[in-house]
Amino acid sequence: MNDFxxxxxxxxxxxxxxxxxxxxxxxDRPRLAALFTPDGALRMPDIPVExxxxxxxxxxGERLQSQWDFFVQTTHxxxxxxxxxxxTGRAYIQELARTLDGRQGLNYAVYHDRYQRTGEGWKFAExxxxxxxxxxxxxxxxxxxAAQGSGTGPADVTATPAPAGSFATPASAGRLERVAAALxxxxxxxxxxxxxxxxxxxxxxxLPEGAGVLTGASETLRLSGIDEDINTGGRYDAVRxxxxxxxxxxxxxxxxxxxxxxxxxxxxxxxVTETGSLVxxxxxxxxxxxxxxxxxxxxxxxxAQKVVPDLSTALRRVEEYALPMENARxxxxxxxxxxxxxxxxxxAEPRPGRGTVLLLREAIGH
Length: 366
Prior knowledge:
alpha/beta
């Protein structure tokens, strides 16, 4: 009986280690965090990172994964030493990675593990990551990008990067549902609406009459009529008209304070990923503080064509699609080009109830 129990424990612990690699590769941060005990720890002194508790592990995973262009981890079986309801072990790791800022390399590492039997099965009590070999030579490969198709089947991992033209194609119903689920898992409220007219009506429900509201410089807001509703309708304490009335030469400090901390900010984004991240781009950066956390509440209206698989594709969409369109608009309206001087990536919302994403089934804006 004891031998069968030991075999079952070893199989479950090996499955736990495989689940960790799968969650890391699939960028499923909540699932990865759930593999640990509530007070479990993930320690990576060579990075350095030390995360204790499921919430820190989830949030820390978001920070690390948001930096990846691509990441491949292979786990090789190691030792497992059982001791009743606890165990220790080692797993051997090979990794290929490149970050968005160009850091890259191949490494071999060891996870030194402690395991704990729980009511939910075996969990990690601690994982300590030790790098044994690191090669930072340039990697010759590239990261394939998920297909921009219907979203009814698995992603085509052999697909070439999506052409810029596909960035104008509305996402399917299935992809929108996946994005909404990922956003909710990351702490955002997310709703799927039919079109801009429905979003325009929903804004009235979300923003109480008399609230202080800052609108972003967004084609989505302009084309939907939401910008006009907020800034000229008289229902709200609109911040943007107040900013426009201030002399920029003498009132720069007042403008900055008004833009940084309104009660509500309403805006759009340049891209939303299927992993639940929002990407905003700006020339001046003036509207980014409110979106990042300065506003007490935020609402983002997002057209269906802005859905992309991951952050690397989101950045391509900003540079290859959104910027040329905004540049043409800026030249026509202001007589000067636009630029992506500031980028804001929102991977999660740590304040429940603060941020709401209205995903539209139609394409609108850049």
